[in-house]
Amino acid sequence: MRNRLQHFINGEWVDSTGSKTIEVINPATEEVIGRISDGTQEDLDKAVAAARAAFPSFSQTSKEERIAMLNRIADEYEKRKDEIVEVITQELGSPLSISEQTHYNLGLAHYRQAAVELENFEFTEKRGGAVVRKEPIGVSGLITPWNFPTNQTSTKLASAFAAGCTVVLKPSELTPFAAILLAEIFQAAGVPKGVFNLVNGYGEVVGNGISSHPDIDFVSFTGSGAVGQKITENAAKTIKRVALELGGKSPLVVLDDADMSKAAQIAISNVVFNSGQVCVAATRTLVPKSKHDEFIAAVKAILPNIAYGDPQDKKNVFGPLVSEKQYNRVQGYIQKGLEEGATLVYGGPGKPEGLEKGYYVKPTVFANVKNDMTIAQEEIFGPVMSIITYEDLDEAIEIANDTVYGLAGYVVGEDSEKVQKVANSIRAGHITVNNASMEFSAPFGGYKQSGNGREWGSYGIEEYLEVKSIVGIG
Ligand code: NAD
Q1: What is the DSSP letter of 444?
Q2: Which end of the chain is less enclosed by CB atoms within 10 A, N or C?
Q3: Domain ranges of the chain
Q4: Contact at 8 Å (CB) between 104 and 150?
Q5: Cβ-contact 131, 209 below 8 angstroms
Q6: 83 bridge partner residues
């Protein structure tokens, strides 16, 4: 049992001022695996005060000192690999292989990348007669979701540290143990006291407290649109800058010259990955009308070979959903798809046979989906694919953009002009062509209701900076 009832404030583990606790559940077994503190406003105030006190000196550290610190963090992170993988598998339900290959590696990549970015990052520049200085924005409040426990936290933390900001982190109460490990890693890496503070708890208290706190200068939030809106409203009272990384309903456009079997493979992997609990999941699959039957046949041939189930089994590609609430939400959408007249091609309601314990769902594919159906418009956050047909490229682009979201887009096909046209025309912040790998030096973030921030690489560091012009000095 992991009982971690203390917060990490000013370089040490401290008791909560409250006595309430939150149980953390393993979604594969439905059993309690530990407890954390239900943090209070007083806990948060202490953490903010520590971050404020540490800011004057940390903000003055040199680029070289911060590069060294980021690399020490990455070194310590590497030493804790087995624990990180185990914790993520337990609290998120991600299979061991994915916890290692994706979750562990993503977290690590952000610290290493931030150190690389800093090497060439210019904090001052000349503009005519002015000197422009980029200065750390101040105490930053970081609020993160559960679906990538080391990625979402680490991209924010690495950028904040690189910029010279001190932070207060509130991770998701569903997956808090990975963030607790990060605190230990920072301690071992010699992060100065007060630079990193961790307060666990619910959004209503600690999260709300962060967005409305007069001594927090900037909030970086990853999560749902509804909470993002609330944070923005709260932050407006103190004119706090807010960066939002929200949800998506991303299109994957299959061109008519694509190999349908390869395209189906790419489409499936971008829907079932992390049990579909991915902000950039490619949940709307746009297929040429003429290729519809061939594509469906390919999907049906591939899906039975996707192993899923017990996260402790390394051969599994995905495990359960994170919680009962998430399970019910996804079941509701599958039901809605049936009610609205989409054709069920694979999967469907209920638990998969043999996986009655745990929050498992069947990978599910709907065909004959119209883009105005609920399952094509709302973020499901489960392994549910909606196949939508199109007549020509212009219609594909129109459907791709017919959404309130704009986080990601995907194109699969050969003709480079067509690929380019689709990639340029999708109004979203991150486009992947033919399953290319991620590029950590390039920006990541959304258009429209998918958010207004940019993370990763130098763009991520810019978010934690204010810009000052000084005229009249050489
Ligand atoms: P959520 O919005 O419910 O919670 C996110 C965080 O906000 C949690 O730590 C939660 O405790 C906290 N919170 C809840 N209420 C709050 C409040 N009133 N004030 C401040 N904080 C509050 O989201 P979730 O269910 O944890 O995550 C899923 C969502 O996150 C999906 O919509 C997904 O698309 C999105 N997401 C986006 C990205 C991205 O980079 N764009 C990445 C991952 C997840």
Answers
A1: B
A2: C
A3: 2-246+450-471, 251-439
A4: yes
A5: no
A6: none
Q: Which residues contact 212 (CB under 8 A, 6 or more apart)?
A: 234, 235, 237, 238
CA distance 149 to 347: 28
Pairing of strands 465-471, 408-412: unpaired
pLDDT of residue 1: 87
Site residues for ligand 1, CB cut-off 6 Å? 143-148, 152, 170, 172-173, 202-204, 207-208, 211, 222-224, 227, 230-231, 245-248, 279, 379, 381, 407, 446, 451
The domain 251-439 having CATH identifier 3.50.50.60: the answer here is no
**Strand 21-26 versus strand 31-37 pairing type:** antiparallel
CA distances from 425 to 216, 350, 419 (A): 38, 38, 10
User: Which residue type sits at 155?
Assistant: T
User: What is the tens place of the pLDDT at every residue in 321-371?
Assistant: 999 999 999 999 999 999 999 999 999 999 999 999 999 999 999 999 999
- Expressed in angstroms and rounded, the spacing between residue 264 Cα and the centre of ligand 1 is 30
Q: pTM to 2 decimals?
A: 0.98
Q: How many CB atoms lie within 10 A of CB 354?
A: 8
Quick check: is 279 catalytic? yes
The continuous run of DSSP H or E covering 284 comes out as strand 284-288
| 35-50 tens-digit pLDDT | 999 999 999 999 999 9
The confidence band for 121, taking pLDDT boundaries of 50, 70 and 90, is very high
The CATH fold of domain 2-246+450-471: Aldehyde Dehydrogenase; Chain A, domain 1 (3.40.605)
Contact 142, 157 (CB under 8 A): yes
